[in-house]
Specification:
The complex is a heterodimer of chains A (379) and B (116). Chain A has 17 helices and no strands. By secondary structure, chain A is an all-alpha fold. In chain B, helix 2 runs antiparallel to helix 3. Classes of the chains: A mainly alpha (379), B mainly alpha (116). At the A-B interface, helix 4, helix 6, helix 9, helix 14 and helix 17 of A face helix 1, helix 2 and helix 3 of B.
Amino acid sequence: MLFDIVSANSAPLPSEPWWRVFYDFSSLTQSINTSLNDAMSPFWTTVTEMLIIGVLFLLFYAVVGLFLVYAERKVCAFMQNRLGPNRVGPFGIFQTIADLVKLLFVELIPIKNADSFLFNLAPFIVIIAGFMALAAIPFAMGLHAIDLNIGVLYVIAVSAMGVIGVLLAGWSSNNKYSLIGAMRSGAQIVSYELSVGLSIITIVILAGSMQLSEIVEAQRAGWFIFRGHIPAFIAFIIFLISSTAETNRGPFDLAEAESELTAGYHTEYSGIKFAFFFLAEYMNMFIVASIAATVFLGGWMPFHVGNWVGFNIIMDFIPPFFWYIGKTFFVIFLMMWFKWTFPRLRIDQLLTLEWKFLLPINLVNVLIMAFIVLMGWHF
Amino acid sequence: MSNEWLILFFLVGAIFVGLVLIFSGIVAPKSINPQKFEPYECGIPTEGVTWLQFNVGYYLFAILFLVFDVETVLVFPWAVVMKEVGMVAFIEIVIFFFILGLGLLYAWKKHALIWE
Protein backbone atom coordinates (compact mmCIF):
# COMPACT_ATOMS: atom_id res chain seq x y z
CA MET A 1 0.00 0.00 0.00
CA LEU A 2 2.70 2.42 1.10
CA PHE A 3 4.86 1.34 -1.79
CA ASP A 4 2.03 2.11 -4.21
CA ILE A 5 1.70 5.68 -2.95
CA VAL A 6 5.45 6.27 -3.12
CA SER A 7 5.77 4.94 -6.65
CA ALA A 8 2.71 6.89 -7.80
CA ASN A 9 4.26 10.09 -6.46
CA SER A 10 7.73 9.55 -7.84
CA ALA A 11 6.76 8.31 -11.31
CA PRO A 12 6.70 11.07 -13.96
CA LEU A 13 3.40 11.85 -15.59
CA PRO A 14 3.21 10.29 -19.05
CA SER A 15 2.11 13.56 -20.68
CA GLU A 16 5.14 15.46 -19.42
CA PRO A 17 7.94 15.85 -21.99
CA TRP A 18 11.27 14.32 -20.97
CA TRP A 19 13.10 17.63 -20.46
CA ARG A 20 10.62 18.77 -17.82
CA VAL A 21 11.52 15.73 -15.74
CA PHE A 22 15.22 15.68 -16.55
CA TYR A 23 15.91 19.37 -15.90
CA ASP A 24 13.67 19.72 -12.82
CA PHE A 25 15.74 21.11 -9.97
CA SER A 26 13.09 20.51 -7.28
CA SER A 27 14.00 16.78 -7.14
CA LEU A 28 17.65 17.73 -6.52
CA THR A 29 16.81 20.19 -3.75
CA GLN A 30 14.40 17.72 -2.18
CA SER A 31 16.98 14.94 -2.17
CA ILE A 32 19.52 17.28 -0.54
CA ASN A 33 16.89 18.17 2.05
CA THR A 34 16.04 14.54 2.85
CA SER A 35 19.68 13.44 3.04
CA LEU A 36 20.45 16.32 5.40
CA ASN A 37 17.41 15.41 7.49
CA ASP A 38 18.62 11.81 7.72
CA ALA A 39 22.09 12.91 8.79
CA MET A 40 21.23 15.37 11.56
CA SER A 41 18.54 16.92 13.71
CA PRO A 42 15.95 19.34 12.20
CA PHE A 43 17.61 22.35 13.84
CA TRP A 44 21.03 21.66 12.33
CA THR A 45 19.42 20.83 8.99
CA THR A 46 17.85 24.30 8.93
CA VAL A 47 21.15 25.91 9.91
CA THR A 48 23.05 24.03 7.19
CA GLU A 49 20.47 24.89 4.56
CA MET A 50 20.60 28.55 5.61
CA LEU A 51 24.38 28.54 5.26
CA ILE A 52 24.27 26.84 1.85
CA ILE A 53 21.61 29.18 0.48
CA GLY A 54 23.21 32.29 1.94
CA VAL A 55 26.66 31.50 0.55
CA LEU A 56 25.30 30.45 -2.87
CA PHE A 57 23.22 33.60 -3.30
CA LEU A 58 26.07 35.79 -2.07
CA LEU A 59 28.42 34.18 -4.59
CA PHE A 60 25.83 34.58 -7.35
CA TYR A 61 25.31 38.24 -6.39
CA ALA A 62 29.03 39.02 -6.37
CA VAL A 63 29.87 37.12 -9.57
CA VAL A 64 26.97 38.60 -11.55
CA GLY A 65 27.72 42.10 -10.27
CA LEU A 66 31.40 41.87 -11.20
CA PHE A 67 30.64 40.33 -14.56
CA LEU A 68 28.10 43.04 -15.40
CA VAL A 69 30.61 45.81 -14.69
CA TYR A 70 33.03 44.07 -17.07
CA ALA A 71 30.27 43.50 -19.65
CA GLU A 72 29.24 47.14 -19.53
CA ARG A 73 32.79 48.29 -20.20
CA LYS A 74 33.18 45.82 -23.07
CA VAL A 75 29.82 46.76 -24.62
CA CYS A 76 30.66 50.46 -24.26
CA ALA A 77 34.01 49.85 -25.93
CA PHE A 78 32.30 47.92 -28.72
CA MET A 79 29.83 50.77 -29.30
CA GLN A 80 32.62 53.35 -29.39
CA ASN A 81 34.93 51.25 -31.56
CA ARG A 82 37.52 50.74 -28.82
CA LEU A 83 39.04 47.63 -27.25
CA GLY A 84 37.96 48.11 -23.64
CA PRO A 85 39.72 46.36 -20.74
CA ASN A 86 42.24 43.88 -22.19
CA ARG A 87 45.25 43.73 -19.89
CA VAL A 88 44.30 41.79 -16.73
CA GLY A 89 43.75 38.16 -17.66
CA PRO A 90 42.50 36.88 -21.02
CA PHE A 91 40.35 39.61 -22.67
CA GLY A 92 40.62 41.55 -19.42
CA ILE A 93 38.08 39.43 -17.57
CA PHE A 94 39.88 39.95 -14.24
CA GLN A 95 39.85 43.74 -14.59
CA THR A 96 36.84 44.24 -12.27
CA ILE A 97 38.36 41.93 -9.65
CA ALA A 98 41.54 44.00 -9.75
CA ASP A 99 39.44 47.16 -9.39
CA LEU A 100 37.58 45.66 -6.45
CA VAL A 101 40.80 44.74 -4.64
CA LYS A 102 42.12 48.24 -5.24
CA LEU A 103 38.87 49.78 -3.88
CA LEU A 104 39.15 47.60 -0.75
CA PHE A 105 42.48 49.24 0.02
CA VAL A 106 41.25 52.81 -0.43
CA GLU A 107 40.78 54.98 2.64
CA LEU A 108 37.17 55.52 3.83
CA ILE A 109 37.01 59.30 4.24
CA PRO A 110 34.64 60.60 6.96
CA ILE A 111 33.18 63.89 5.71
CA LYS A 112 33.15 66.89 8.03
CA ASN A 113 29.69 67.68 9.46
CA ALA A 114 28.09 64.76 7.61
CA ASP A 115 25.36 62.75 9.35
CA SER A 116 27.64 59.76 9.91
CA PHE A 117 24.93 57.29 11.00
CA LEU A 118 22.80 57.82 7.86
CA PHE A 119 25.96 58.11 5.77
CA ASN A 120 26.97 54.59 6.80
CA LEU A 121 23.43 53.20 6.70
CA ALA A 122 22.84 54.07 3.03
CA PRO A 123 25.04 51.35 1.44
CA PHE A 124 23.38 48.74 3.68
CA ILE A 125 19.89 49.66 2.44
CA VAL A 126 20.94 49.75 -1.20
CA ILE A 127 22.57 46.30 -1.07
CA ILE A 128 19.88 44.64 1.08
CA ALA A 129 17.11 45.85 -1.25
CA GLY A 130 18.81 44.22 -4.22
CA PHE A 131 19.62 41.06 -2.33
CA MET A 132 16.08 40.55 -1.05
CA ALA A 133 14.62 41.00 -4.52
CA LEU A 134 16.85 38.15 -5.71
CA ALA A 135 15.05 35.77 -3.33
CA ALA A 136 11.86 35.49 -5.38
CA ILE A 137 13.25 35.12 -8.89
CA PRO A 138 12.85 31.68 -10.56
CA PHE A 139 16.23 30.85 -12.12
CA ALA A 140 15.26 27.50 -13.59
CA MET A 141 12.58 24.87 -13.19
CA GLY A 142 12.19 24.34 -9.44
CA LEU A 143 15.22 26.52 -8.73
CA HIS A 144 14.04 29.48 -6.69
CA ALA A 145 14.66 30.43 -3.06
CA ILE A 146 11.10 31.42 -2.15
CA ASP A 147 8.07 30.96 -4.37
CA LEU A 148 5.93 33.84 -3.09
CA ASN A 149 2.30 33.90 -4.23
CA ILE A 150 2.63 37.67 -4.79
CA GLY A 151 6.06 37.32 -6.41
CA VAL A 152 5.84 40.11 -9.00
CA LEU A 153 4.47 42.66 -6.54
CA TYR A 154 7.13 41.67 -4.00
CA VAL A 155 10.02 42.13 -6.42
CA ILE A 156 8.75 45.53 -7.60
CA ALA A 157 8.19 46.68 -4.00
CA VAL A 158 11.53 45.52 -2.62
CA SER A 159 13.66 46.72 -5.52
CA ALA A 160 12.02 50.16 -5.20
CA MET A 161 13.24 50.29 -1.57
CA GLY A 162 16.70 51.09 -2.93
CA VAL A 163 15.61 54.69 -3.51
CA ILE A 164 15.55 55.20 0.25
CA GLY A 165 19.25 54.37 0.33
CA VAL A 166 19.90 56.82 -2.49
CA LEU A 167 17.93 59.58 -0.74
CA LEU A 168 19.75 58.93 2.55
CA ALA A 169 23.12 58.96 0.81
CA GLY A 170 22.39 62.28 -0.85
CA TRP A 171 20.93 63.88 2.25
CA SER A 172 23.59 62.82 4.75
CA SER A 173 26.66 63.70 2.64
CA ASN A 174 26.57 67.42 3.49
CA ASN A 175 27.17 68.15 -0.17
CA LYS A 176 24.93 70.18 -2.46
CA TYR A 177 25.59 68.04 -5.53
CA SER A 178 24.60 64.94 -3.60
CA LEU A 179 21.40 66.56 -2.35
CA ILE A 180 20.32 67.66 -5.83
CA GLY A 181 21.15 64.23 -7.24
CA ALA A 182 19.14 62.46 -4.55
CA MET A 183 16.13 64.75 -5.03
CA ARG A 184 16.17 64.15 -8.77
CA SER A 185 16.45 60.43 -8.20
CA GLY A 186 13.45 60.53 -5.85
CA ALA A 187 11.25 62.35 -8.36
CA GLN A 188 12.33 60.03 -11.14
CA ILE A 189 11.82 56.73 -9.36
CA VAL A 190 8.53 57.87 -7.83
CA SER A 191 7.22 58.70 -11.31
CA TYR A 192 8.45 55.66 -13.21
CA GLU A 193 7.34 53.22 -10.54
CA LEU A 194 3.78 53.64 -11.85
CA SER A 195 4.66 52.59 -15.37
CA VAL A 196 6.54 49.52 -14.16
CA GLY A 197 3.53 48.44 -12.09
CA LEU A 198 0.96 49.04 -14.82
CA SER A 199 2.93 47.26 -17.54
CA ILE A 200 3.29 44.25 -15.22
CA ILE A 201 -0.48 44.36 -14.57
CA THR A 202 -1.03 44.00 -18.32
CA ILE A 203 0.67 40.61 -18.17
CA VAL A 204 -0.88 39.60 -14.83
CA ILE A 205 -4.29 39.88 -16.52
CA LEU A 206 -3.11 37.43 -19.16
CA ALA A 207 -1.50 35.02 -16.67
CA GLY A 208 -4.18 35.25 -13.98
CA SER A 209 -1.56 34.97 -11.24
CA MET A 210 1.14 36.99 -9.50
CA GLN A 211 3.23 33.95 -8.57
CA LEU A 212 6.36 34.03 -10.70
CA SER A 213 6.57 30.25 -11.16
CA GLU A 214 2.94 30.17 -12.30
CA ILE A 215 3.52 33.05 -14.69
CA VAL A 216 6.38 31.07 -16.25
CA GLU A 217 4.24 27.92 -16.33
CA ALA A 218 1.45 29.83 -18.10
CA GLN A 219 3.86 30.62 -20.93
CA ARG A 220 4.34 26.98 -21.82
CA ALA A 221 2.35 27.35 -25.03
CA GLY A 222 4.23 30.50 -26.00
CA TRP A 223 5.84 33.55 -24.49
CA PHE A 224 3.48 36.31 -23.42
CA ILE A 225 5.14 38.87 -25.67
CA PHE A 226 3.94 36.78 -28.64
CA ARG A 227 0.65 35.56 -27.20
CA GLY A 228 -0.63 38.92 -26.02
CA HIS A 229 -0.91 40.59 -29.44
CA ILE A 230 0.15 44.25 -29.65
CA PRO A 231 -0.74 45.26 -26.03
CA ALA A 232 1.86 42.86 -24.62
CA PHE A 233 4.50 44.26 -26.95
CA ILE A 234 3.63 47.84 -25.97
CA ALA A 235 3.81 46.81 -22.31
CA PHE A 236 7.26 45.30 -22.92
CA ILE A 237 8.54 48.52 -24.52
CA ILE A 238 7.10 50.62 -21.66
CA PHE A 239 8.60 48.26 -19.10
CA LEU A 240 12.02 48.55 -20.74
CA ILE A 241 11.90 52.36 -20.76
CA SER A 242 10.56 52.77 -17.24
CA SER A 243 12.79 50.12 -15.67
CA THR A 244 15.83 51.76 -17.27
CA ALA A 245 14.69 55.01 -15.65
CA GLU A 246 13.99 53.28 -12.35
CA THR A 247 17.51 51.90 -12.08
CA ASN A 248 18.98 55.38 -12.75
CA ARG A 249 20.61 54.24 -15.95
CA GLY A 250 21.07 55.02 -19.55
CA PRO A 251 19.60 58.23 -20.89
CA PHE A 252 17.83 58.71 -17.56
CA ASP A 253 20.88 58.88 -15.25
CA LEU A 254 20.05 62.37 -14.01
CA ALA A 255 20.78 61.43 -10.40
CA GLU A 256 24.46 61.04 -11.21
CA ALA A 257 24.83 63.25 -14.26
CA GLU A 258 28.63 63.50 -14.42
CA SER A 259 28.69 66.71 -16.44
CA GLU A 260 26.40 68.56 -14.01
CA LEU A 261 26.69 67.00 -10.54
CA THR A 262 30.19 65.41 -10.53
CA ALA A 263 28.82 62.04 -9.37
CA GLY A 264 25.40 62.87 -7.91
CA TYR A 265 24.38 61.13 -4.70
CA HIS A 266 27.65 59.19 -4.21
CA THR A 267 30.03 62.12 -4.69
CA GLU A 268 31.34 61.91 -1.13
CA TYR A 269 31.59 58.12 -0.90
CA SER A 270 35.07 56.66 -1.22
CA GLY A 271 36.60 53.23 -1.41
CA ILE A 272 34.43 50.20 -0.83
CA LYS A 273 31.35 52.26 0.10
CA PHE A 274 31.36 53.67 -3.40
CA ALA A 275 31.78 50.13 -4.73
CA PHE A 276 28.57 49.09 -2.94
CA PHE A 277 26.57 51.75 -4.79
CA PHE A 278 28.20 50.70 -8.02
CA LEU A 279 27.44 47.01 -7.39
CA ALA A 280 23.85 47.77 -6.37
CA GLU A 281 23.25 49.71 -9.57
CA TYR A 282 24.30 46.74 -11.67
CA MET A 283 22.39 44.24 -9.55
CA ASN A 284 19.25 46.36 -9.87
CA MET A 285 19.71 46.22 -13.60
CA PHE A 286 20.05 42.43 -13.41
CA ILE A 287 16.89 42.10 -11.28
CA VAL A 288 14.85 44.33 -13.57
CA ALA A 289 16.11 42.46 -16.62
CA SER A 290 15.29 39.09 -15.11
CA ILE A 291 11.77 40.28 -14.28
CA ALA A 292 11.39 41.40 -17.90
CA ALA A 293 12.69 38.01 -19.06
CA THR A 294 10.42 36.10 -16.68
CA VAL A 295 7.22 38.02 -17.25
CA PHE A 296 7.43 38.88 -20.95
CA LEU A 297 9.92 36.44 -22.48
CA GLY A 298 8.91 33.26 -20.69
CA GLY A 299 11.59 32.90 -18.01
CA TRP A 300 13.21 29.49 -18.35
CA MET A 301 10.73 28.25 -20.98
CA PRO A 302 12.39 27.16 -24.23
CA PHE A 303 11.48 28.84 -27.49
CA HIS A 304 8.88 26.80 -29.40
CA VAL A 305 7.40 27.41 -32.81
CA GLY A 306 3.92 25.95 -33.44
CA ASN A 307 4.21 22.65 -35.27
CA TRP A 308 7.95 22.52 -35.96
CA VAL A 309 8.46 19.32 -33.97
CA GLY A 310 12.16 18.87 -34.83
CA PHE A 311 13.00 22.48 -34.02
CA ASN A 312 11.14 22.28 -30.70
CA ILE A 313 12.99 19.10 -29.69
CA ILE A 314 16.36 20.74 -30.42
CA MET A 315 15.30 23.75 -28.32
CA ASP A 316 14.29 21.43 -25.45
CA PHE A 317 17.88 20.14 -25.19
CA ILE A 318 19.12 23.52 -23.92
CA PRO A 319 18.76 23.51 -20.10
CA PRO A 320 16.21 25.98 -18.66
CA PHE A 321 18.86 27.85 -16.67
CA PHE A 322 20.64 28.83 -19.88
CA TRP A 323 17.37 30.04 -21.38
CA TYR A 324 16.81 32.23 -18.36
CA ILE A 325 20.36 33.63 -18.35
CA GLY A 326 20.32 34.15 -22.11
CA LYS A 327 17.07 36.13 -22.03
CA THR A 328 18.20 38.17 -19.04
CA PHE A 329 21.46 39.12 -20.68
CA PHE A 330 19.63 39.94 -23.90
CA VAL A 331 17.52 42.49 -21.97
CA ILE A 332 20.64 43.78 -20.18
CA PHE A 333 22.35 44.23 -23.54
CA LEU A 334 19.35 46.25 -24.75
CA MET A 335 19.63 48.49 -21.68
CA MET A 336 23.37 49.00 -22.24
CA TRP A 337 22.66 49.79 -25.87
CA PHE A 338 20.23 52.52 -24.73
CA LYS A 339 22.82 53.99 -22.42
CA TRP A 340 25.54 54.32 -25.04
CA THR A 341 23.23 55.46 -27.83
CA PHE A 342 20.94 58.19 -26.50
CA PRO A 343 21.99 61.53 -24.97
CA ARG A 344 20.82 62.33 -21.45
CA LEU A 345 17.35 63.88 -21.01
CA ARG A 346 16.55 67.02 -19.04
CA ILE A 347 14.54 66.56 -15.84
CA ASP A 348 11.42 68.26 -17.21
CA GLN A 349 11.57 66.16 -20.40
CA LEU A 350 11.90 63.07 -18.23
CA LEU A 351 8.78 63.85 -16.21
CA THR A 352 6.82 64.90 -19.31
CA LEU A 353 7.67 61.57 -20.94
CA GLU A 354 6.30 59.68 -17.94
CA TRP A 355 3.20 61.65 -16.97
CA LYS A 356 2.00 62.83 -20.38
CA PHE A 357 2.94 59.86 -22.56
CA LEU A 358 3.73 56.59 -20.80
CA LEU A 359 1.05 56.76 -18.08
CA PRO A 360 -1.98 57.51 -20.36
CA ILE A 361 -0.76 54.98 -22.93
CA ASN A 362 -0.33 52.42 -20.18
CA LEU A 363 -3.84 52.96 -18.73
CA VAL A 364 -5.42 52.49 -22.17
CA ASN A 365 -3.14 49.50 -22.80
CA VAL A 366 -4.38 47.73 -19.66
CA LEU A 367 -7.99 48.21 -20.78
CA ILE A 368 -7.27 46.88 -24.29
CA MET A 369 -5.52 43.84 -22.81
CA ALA A 370 -8.44 43.19 -20.46
CA PHE A 371 -10.83 43.37 -23.42
CA ILE A 372 -8.70 40.98 -25.49
CA VAL A 373 -8.54 38.47 -22.62
CA LEU A 374 -12.30 38.83 -22.10
CA MET A 375 -13.02 38.09 -25.75
CA GLY A 376 -10.48 35.27 -25.82
CA TRP A 377 -8.58 36.82 -28.72
CA HIS A 378 -5.14 36.03 -27.33
CA PHE A 379 -3.32 32.95 -28.59
CA MET B 1 10.57 27.24 1.34
CA SER B 2 8.23 29.29 3.46
CA ASN B 3 8.12 33.07 3.52
CA GLU B 4 9.97 33.39 6.82
CA TRP B 5 13.17 32.70 4.90
CA LEU B 6 13.09 36.29 3.69
CA ILE B 7 14.70 37.22 7.03
CA LEU B 8 17.69 35.11 5.95
CA PHE B 9 18.16 37.22 2.84
CA PHE B 10 17.91 40.39 4.90
CA LEU B 11 20.52 39.10 7.35
CA VAL B 12 22.91 37.80 4.70
CA GLY B 13 22.83 41.16 2.91
CA ALA B 14 23.48 43.06 6.13
CA ILE B 15 26.27 40.71 7.25
CA PHE B 16 27.92 40.87 3.80
CA VAL B 17 28.04 44.68 3.82
CA GLY B 18 29.10 44.81 7.48
CA LEU B 19 31.94 42.30 7.10
CA VAL B 20 33.34 43.93 3.97
CA LEU B 21 33.21 47.36 5.64
CA ILE B 22 35.05 46.03 8.71
CA PHE B 23 37.66 44.31 6.52
CA SER B 24 38.18 47.47 4.48
CA GLY B 25 38.42 49.51 7.69
CA ILE B 26 41.26 47.22 8.86
CA VAL B 27 43.30 47.05 5.67
CA ALA B 28 42.74 50.58 4.31
CA PRO B 29 45.34 53.22 5.19
CA LYS B 30 44.44 56.26 7.29
CA SER B 31 46.01 59.70 7.16
CA ILE B 32 44.90 62.93 8.78
CA ASN B 33 44.57 65.97 6.57
CA PRO B 34 41.94 68.59 7.44
CA GLN B 35 41.31 69.58 3.82
CA LYS B 36 40.49 66.02 2.84
CA PHE B 37 37.44 65.92 5.10
CA GLU B 38 35.81 68.95 3.45
CA PRO B 39 32.77 68.20 1.25
CA TYR B 40 33.59 68.52 -2.43
CA GLU B 41 32.44 71.68 -4.16
CA CYS B 42 34.58 72.35 -7.25
CA GLY B 43 37.72 72.45 -5.11
CA ILE B 44 36.84 75.66 -3.24
CA PRO B 45 35.68 75.92 0.42
CA THR B 46 31.95 75.20 0.67
CA GLU B 47 29.64 78.17 0.79
CA GLY B 48 26.94 78.21 3.52
CA VAL B 49 25.03 75.23 4.93
CA THR B 50 23.78 72.35 2.79
CA TRP B 51 20.60 71.56 4.67
CA LEU B 52 18.78 74.76 3.80
CA GLN B 53 15.23 75.44 2.65
CA PHE B 54 15.00 73.72 -0.71
CA ASN B 55 12.41 74.20 -3.44
CA VAL B 56 11.23 70.64 -3.89
CA GLY B 57 9.97 70.72 -7.46
CA TYR B 58 8.34 67.36 -7.23
CA TYR B 59 5.98 68.00 -4.32
CA LEU B 60 2.96 67.77 -6.62
CA PHE B 61 4.42 64.72 -8.32
CA ALA B 62 4.67 63.01 -4.93
CA ILE B 63 0.97 63.64 -4.26
CA LEU B 64 -0.01 62.40 -7.73
CA PHE B 65 2.24 59.38 -7.27
CA LEU B 66 0.45 58.52 -4.04
CA VAL B 67 -2.93 58.55 -5.84
CA PHE B 68 -1.75 56.44 -8.74
CA ASP B 69 0.33 54.02 -6.70
CA VAL B 70 -2.56 53.18 -4.41
CA GLU B 71 -4.57 52.65 -7.59
CA THR B 72 -1.89 50.27 -8.94
CA VAL B 73 -2.01 48.20 -5.75
CA LEU B 74 -5.82 48.09 -6.04
CA VAL B 75 -5.67 46.95 -9.66
CA PHE B 76 -3.25 44.04 -8.97
CA PRO B 77 -5.88 41.80 -7.26
CA TRP B 78 -8.37 42.77 -9.94
CA ALA B 79 -5.91 41.63 -12.63
CA VAL B 80 -5.53 38.22 -10.95
CA VAL B 81 -9.27 37.44 -10.89
CA MET B 82 -10.15 39.27 -14.12
CA LYS B 83 -10.43 36.09 -16.22
CA GLU B 84 -12.82 34.39 -13.80
CA VAL B 85 -15.13 37.32 -13.06
CA GLY B 86 -15.47 38.33 -16.70
CA MET B 87 -17.58 41.16 -18.09
CA VAL B 88 -18.54 42.73 -14.74
CA ALA B 89 -14.89 43.19 -13.81
CA PHE B 90 -14.16 44.77 -17.17
CA ILE B 91 -16.99 47.33 -16.91
CA GLU B 92 -15.99 48.18 -13.35
CA ILE B 93 -12.37 48.81 -14.30
CA VAL B 94 -13.43 50.97 -17.26
CA ILE B 95 -15.42 53.20 -14.87
CA PHE B 96 -12.53 53.20 -12.39
CA PHE B 97 -9.96 54.18 -15.02
CA PHE B 98 -12.33 56.81 -16.42
CA ILE B 99 -12.49 58.58 -13.05
CA LEU B 100 -8.71 58.27 -12.67
CA GLY B 101 -8.20 59.64 -16.17
CA LEU B 102 -10.36 62.64 -15.28
CA GLY B 103 -8.08 63.23 -12.27
CA LEU B 104 -4.96 63.05 -14.44
CA LEU B 105 -6.58 65.42 -16.97
CA TYR B 106 -7.42 67.87 -14.18
CA ALA B 107 -3.82 67.82 -12.91
CA TRP B 108 -2.61 68.30 -16.49
CA LYS B 109 -4.87 71.32 -17.10
CA LYS B 110 -3.83 72.85 -13.75
CA HIS B 111 -0.17 72.66 -14.93
CA ALA B 112 0.74 70.28 -12.11
CA LEU B 113 2.77 68.12 -14.52
CA ILE B 114 5.41 70.78 -15.22
CA TRP B 115 8.71 70.83 -13.34
CA GLU B 116 9.34 74.43 -12.22
